[in-house]
Amino acid sequence: MSSRRFLLLAIIPLVCLAACKEPEPRILSIFPRIGAVGDILTIEGEHFGGEQRESYVTIGGISPTSPSYLEWRNESIILRIPEFNESGLVYVYVGRQKSNAALFTSHEAIPEPAAGEAAGVSPRISSVSPLAGSTGSLVTIQGSNFGSSRGESGVYFAWTARASASAPAEVSGPGRVEVSGADLGYEFWSDREIRVRVPDGAQSGTLEVETSRGKSSPQYFEVTGRPGTRTYRDKRSYSISYSVDIQVREASTASNTLYLWVPTPVISGSQRKRELLSRETGALVENYQGVSLYGLQGLGSGASQRISLAWLVDVYAVETAVVSSQIRSSAALSPLESAFTLATELIPSGDAAVRQQAAAIVGRETNKYLKAQRIYEWIRRETAIQTGPLEGGVLEALETKQADPYMAALLFCALARASGLAAQPVAGVLIDQYPGTRSHYWAEFWIEGFGWIPVDPALGAGAAPPSFNLREDHGAWYFGSLDNQRIAFSRGETLFSRMDPRGRITARSREYALQNLWEEAVGGLDSYSSLWSGIIINGVYAE
Fold first, then answer.
1. Does domain 333-480 have CATH number 3.10.620.30?
2. Which of 227, 376, 389, 508 has the largest count of CB atoms under 10 Å?
């Protein structure tokens, strides 16, 4: 009897805690949706609390000062609009609870009708359908002045990073993420209609179309159905530089060209701003599939030339927490999954040995997230991974059960693709000491409705340089999460075509980008040498 009474007494507090938990504040509407600094904003909803006390509102990451609050009731809040950017998300914070978002737009963000020949050239959105969807889902945008083809135009969704502990309210990072062409995000583009897929890293918030003639007024889009959470935090800004030195030994004629495909830092959910600080030589083509293409012409015998680049790159740590039971399974593959499950020379997922090993690892498991987890753990457990380079690729690593970071990342991708998972390798540099870096490789796998999830088999196995700040929980953490001590230069395999069918090409393996072409000599350039420097860290700025 006493044991039953003890059990009952133990359960009562748990039931009370569950029943007494404060409901989350919820915004039902805001009025007006478009206004100016100093205007009165009314937020209607529920569970705001009868008094303000420690509760507050943020608009675009800005919290109004105390005198700005005119009224605070459980179902409505009235305040004056503070100074903020052109548009921003409205949140209500009550205790540790955070409401859903509503979009407020400044009058300054609404394009004014232009006069003359340029009138009405800015893109205009008339409808977005649907108004909510999950990562990877298709969205149709209708309107005008989008342009007959995409070119350098783009569609942007909201993006948010978690604020530092010292910030008074949530502060976003750059604020938006572009639909990715590399992820097959653009399905159709015309002057009046665009069809895109919700990009990796998108959050509920603004949706905008931007062209060379301006950007549209923002629309609100809600990202739903995500089976878990993704958090970007701890921003670091890296000032980096690298160069290519060319020395011509012999040129039989001045009619020659040396093409160089020089990688640039990629833009992704966790790697944000990419600002060019300096450059000595102008590029022939900018931002072509993640590289700058240079064409050095008329190089004579004994000539020397240098290409030097300096960038500022923002990198965030990313953490994911996936509820595997909430992942929706579908027999049909999405366009992205179809593309990133193909076998390639670098990722031989169709090889019989790879397929056999993949089947043995995943067994009867059908959940894609759990499949990826089994593959990751098998590589960590069964493969001896070392920091120094080894010879070979996926098949050698599978046979010898030995790998370096390059082989481990490709092995994960091959086993994942053989198991029906979309996966791609990522190449870049690991920042283990200043000012130097070393090439490093990791991977990502795709979960429809969630996006790309990072894995680093090498660091997960503890194969880190001695000076690298490796987490104690590296084994579990590097499945689904990634640090901010790296810079990525390529995601997936980047394949280029020769500029000239007669060109003599140079491929560089195990570099900080995975691309098939690095150099191509055309014409009378008979003999030359090239020296590609490593990535140099010139400065680190932590937020």
1. yes
2. 376
